[in-house]
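Pipeline run #58 for the internal structure catalog. This entry was flagged by the ingest filter as a single-chain record with no existing model, so it goes straight to prediction. Upstream metadata was stripped on purpose; only the residue string is passed forward. Reviewer on rotation: M.T. Logging verbosity set to normal.
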Amino acid sequence: MNFSSKLIEDAVNEFSKLPGVGKRTALRYVLHLLKQNEAEVTQFGAALIKLRSELRYCSKCHNVSDQPICEICSNPHRDSSVVCVVEDIRDVMAIENTQQFRGLYHVLGGIISPMDGVGPSDLNVETLVQKAATGEIKEVIMALSTTMEGDTTNFYIYKRLKEFNLTVSTIARGISIGDELEYADEITLGRSIVNRTLYESTFSLK
């Protein structure tokens, strides 16, 4: 793709680094921004810079937050005795959209995947174990994607939590095997949370 301007070429190259954005789509974004007034483009750029520099992670659940403790963890109306373990922040958003869960979350920051070089030490597992050790948690819901990597992570966490006096459950298999959680429709995902099952009961299915 030939550009008449190095500035446009540089901007297109940056936009094309985004997931699912090719050169042609990136060019449309750049040309759209050029049609906006300078104040709007400046606001757009400032929002991105502020996002990167000021966004932080909740010290309790590792969810993204504007404050040291996120709005979910600081909400007194949430049930702190039930913790839903998810892979990343997209899954928190997906479950919240179902309006079926009123507990708290724990964001792992990924799942165990030896092929990708991701092991238990790369995830936020130890802070979950520390929470369980306090005795304040009654149930941990494993809400990871129903893939081999997700099941491996489920089993690892289950083994780490087995010594504590709490229930470990998993979302109902309304989510198809191999599906990514973030792509499930809200009704199916909501029912999976409500109709969760004891994690031990899934052993017989394998």
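catalog note: The two ends are 51 Å apart (CA to CA).
catalog note: The domain at 6-54 is CATH 1.10.8.420 (Helicase, Ruva Protein; domain 3).
status: ready for reviewer M.T.
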